[in-house]
Amino acid sequence: MISNEMKQQIVHYAAQFEEEYLLQPDGQKHHEAYSTEREEVSKYWDEIKKAKKAGKSITDMVLRKLLPYTNTRYNREMGNRISIAPGVIKDIRKWFEGAGWQESDNWDKVALAIFDLTYDLIEKEDLGSLAKFEQMPESKGFKSGLLSPTFYFLNERFRLINAKTVNTLNFIADKTVIGRDLTNYGEHIKTIDLILDELSIPLFDEYDNFDAFCHWMCDKRLGGYARYEKPSDEFIEEPAIGEERFEESEPSGHWEAIYYIVKTGNLLGYKTYVSDPSKIAFDEKLGNLATIKEVPQLLRNASEIKRVDAIWYKSQPPFFLFEVEDGGTMREALHRLYNAMAFDARFIVVCPPKNRKKFEKWVSTQPFLEFRDRYQYRTYSELFEFYKTVRSFIAMRQRFLNVPKHIKSH
Question: Which of 89, 237, 259, 373 places its Cα 20 to 30 Å from the Cα of 339?
């Protein structure tokens, strides 16, 4: 499965990893964190089983303690389990609901499905439960990166598999040999063990060391040899152990969406305005991100223009006006935008996927219907992808042309 040239290369990388990372203070902290988390997860699992047996609700316990969270102030304050292999950056409910994967009233079923899967796998070693789980609607959005850290810390036989594992193993094999789906999780475990046997590197006899090696191979600040330019959507580059992590992630609510609208506008060289500069998203005040405090003079005659969530402005139109609609009245949002119809402006309504029908309903009525081409519907996911694309383009443009980071406003 592995070429002789690659084996020699990995032996070299393993020696470099051990000398430059594993035996150094940061690497030692990383290694110790596995034992700590193993104890924590075992304790949480026992508590959850007892609560389930006693007929108590286990929803919050499953979501906060069985899933692996990034080391952020929010997650620590919420009592979420901080993991050496994080897969959740913030509130799991807001994330999944914003992505359209789950409904707000379905979390009891989701938590029960995760509990049942974990119980069948850990207590019964029933690998067939993985395929059954992945066929359930409650499984949407859950892959091995979110669940295998729990399986692994309860039983090391069930290997920890997330994007860094996938990237490293596929790099070693020089082809795709494992993925993040749960149905084939058992086969992926066998593939990992076969590759480790073929490598025959004593350091990797302890899987904690190999997982740390995968981290080192995918972290651009460390080895970085297996890091792809465009990492998979589940990849989260872990901070050094004990270091707090802020990770830009898909917006899950109103103010987080406005955060990305403003940041994208700034990158594109627009002057940016927000209607409520006091709100905070990702620990930043929106007013500190926006470049202007008042609506531009040219637009001020439009009724209610100050209440429009965000505006991109340049001296030459078109201008872009944004409304984020995640729980209010869609018609009112469309009408605030309609008030600027006299200007050469485009109106973008950003919503969770579940609000699309509401948008289509109202935009097909008067007075909006006559100007339907001015209105655009975009999801949180589309906004985030656009932001990442713009950010990458600006960075590449800066490197290639040696020009300032921000495109100059006209």
Answer: 259
What phi and psi, each to the nearest 5 degrees, are found at residue 117?
A: -65, -45
- DSSP 8-class letter at 312: E
Reported pTM = 0.62
- Determine contact, residues 157/170, Cβ cutoff 8 Å: no
pLDDT at 248: 66
Using DSSP bridges, classify how beta strands 319-324 and 345-351 pair: parallel, antiparallel or unpaired: parallel
Give Cβ neighbours of residue 111 (< 8 Å, ≥ 6 apart): 58, 59, 60, 61, 62, 63
Per-residue DSSP letter, 349: E
Strand duo 284-285 + 280-281: pairing? antiparallel
Residue numbers in the chain where pLDDT is lower than 70: 228-248, 328, 402-410
Contact 199, 259 (CB under 8 A): no
Calpha distance 183→165 (Å, rounded): 17
CB 402: neighbour CB atoms within 10 A? 7
Give the span between the Cα atoms of 178 and 191, in whole angstroms: 7
pLDDT (tens digit per residue) in 18-66: 999 999 988 999 999 999 999 999 999 999 999 999 999 999 999 999 9
| DSSP letter string, 310-334 | EEEE-SSSPEEEEEE-SSS-HHHHH
Are the C-beta atoms of residues 179 and 127 closer than 8 Å to each other?
no
Q: Measured between alpha carbons, how far is residue 273 from residues 277, 282, 286 in Å?
A: 9, 18, 9
- Rounded Cα gap, residues 226 and 211, in angstroms: 13
